Amino acid sequence: MVWLDGVLSIGPFLAITIGIVVFFLGRRINQLCAPLREFSIPEPVSGGLLFSCLIALIYALSGIEIEFDLKARDALLVYFFTTIGINASLKDLFKGGLPLVILLTITIVYMLIQNITGIGVAALFGLDSAVGILGGSVSLIGGHGTAIAWAPRISDGYDVVNAMEIGIACATFGLILASLMGGPIAKFLIHRYQLQPELKETLDVGIAKGKQSSAISGFDFLDAILALHICVILGVILNKAIDEAGLQLPLFVTCLFAGILITNSIPDSFPRLSGNKWPARKPAIALIADVSLGTFLAMSLMSMQLWTLVDLAGPIFAILATQFVIAVLVNLFIVFPAMGRNYDAAVVCSGFGGISLGSTPTAMANMSAVSQRYGNSHLAFIIVPLVCAFFIDLVNAMIIPYFLSHF
User: Fold this and answer.
1) Which H helix or E strand runs over 149?
2) CA–CA gap between residue 110 and residue 197 (Å, rounded)
3) Is the pLDDT of residue 327 over 60?
4) Cα separation of 99 and 88, whole Å?
């Protein structure tokens, strides 16, 4: 920890330790609060939001600003998406072909609607259209990373002095809304249409409620870690090769593809040093996925500096409220019917809630919470990350310049 000019900076080791504590806190809160469980609110969301509010209270009372070094958090995201790749089979990928295209098409159209909505609401407040785009796909579907990347260009080119603050504020509150949206939407659809999984599938993330993790031996866990590291090594190699070819992708995307490649290349009879089969869809992989995703999301939410968003409340809340309503309507009346009106569609809708206003980890956390309560959907865990972890950034990179130059 470093104390300088009223700012307490917390290093990566302590930050990830606090993140684990916050994850446990969220689990305890959900155990004590039945509505949070009923609406499948992810445990790290409960703990992360409470902790960020406590930090904001400390700042309000003492003026002490707390900052976290989140470098270690990125490794958790790589771990999580590698587990998704390991669990993916070619059969699932072929099965997800048409649903993947449908969801991607809906998402692209929704991104256009999101920007038009942001521009329209900004115009009602007499603000530049660039502000509306900041409150559209730049910060909502794009998330904090896209907002931070585009804010300087919008600030310099369109005379929006506080573009960075607006982008971060929209991304932050969008993350909160996305975390709270997915579970209730899935619950409504599942109960309204009496949906249930067609097949009883092992969980991609976490362990089913009521089952004990003691069924996982120490060597099972270590074998899963070894498999993860093998995939990550290949993912790093792929990432460097793609980067040299002139295309930049996040490391977790290439690790996801590495997991898919290795899982579908190794025959069941392939000899391994551990003596076990490749650990695809084994409880150890699901447990690692749950822990890594939960801790990542807890760290993301606990580090929010809510006090920086107060001065931007009026127009931003109006934009976000409108975007929230549209996201819910699109989910209920377009995504759910288009994806088949079945249980898989309901789980996809919980993930789309995370995509529409939040981030890829939020989408996955929403689906994980729903799956652990009602049953798994391998299809959802295949198509949603492919849409939001790969295609969205590529499409957004083309949509944002178009709107900035034409509106």
Assistant:
1) helix 143-158
2) 27
3) yes
4) 15
Q: Is 64 helix (H, G, I), strand (E, B) or coil?
A: coil
Please, what is the average pLDDT of the chain?
88
Residue 215 class from Cβ within 10 Å (0-12 exposed, 13-18 middle, 19+ buried)?
Answer: exposed
Contacts of 136 (CB under 8 A, 6+ apart): 111, 114, 115, 116, 117, 118, 119, 323, 403
Exposure of 83 by Cβ count < 10 A (0-12 exposed, 13-18 middle, 19+ buried)? buried
CB 92 within 8 A of CB 115: no
d(CA 18, CA 7): 18
From CA 342, how far away is CA 331, in angstroms rounded? 14
Number of alpha carbons in the 13 Å side-chain half-sphere of residue 289: 30
Q: Which amino acid is at 355?
A: I
Amino acid in position 255: C
pLDDT tens for each residue of 275-288: 678 888 888 998 99
With tokens 């409150």, the residue in question is 135
Q: Show the tokens assigned to 308.
A: 């920086």
According to the model, what pLDDT value does residue 334 have?
97
CA–CA gap between residue 389 and residue 364 (Å, rounded) = 11
CA distances for 173 relative to 143, 150, 168, 358, angstroms: 10, 18, 9, 9
Cα angle, residue 310 at apex, residues 152 and 308 outer, rounded to 5°: 50
Of 102, 174, 165, nearest in space to 136 by CA: 174
What are 167-188's pLDDT values in tens digits?
Answer: 888 988 898 899 899 999 999 9
Report field, pTM of the whole predicted structure over 0.70: yes
Nearest C-alpha neighbor of 21 from the set 33, 32, 29: 29
Q: Are 311 and 27 in contact (CB under 8 A)?
A: no
> What residues pair up with 137 in beta bridges, in sequence order?
none
Using alpha carbons, list the distances in angstroms from residue 110 to 107, 132, 135, 234: 5, 15, 14, 34
Q: What is the pLDDT of residues 367-407, one digit of tens each?
A: 999 998 999 998 898 899 888 766 787 788 789 989 998 88
Select from 187, 206, 213, 250 the least CA-distant residue to 44.
Answer: 206
Across the range 109-120, mean pLDDT stands at: 96
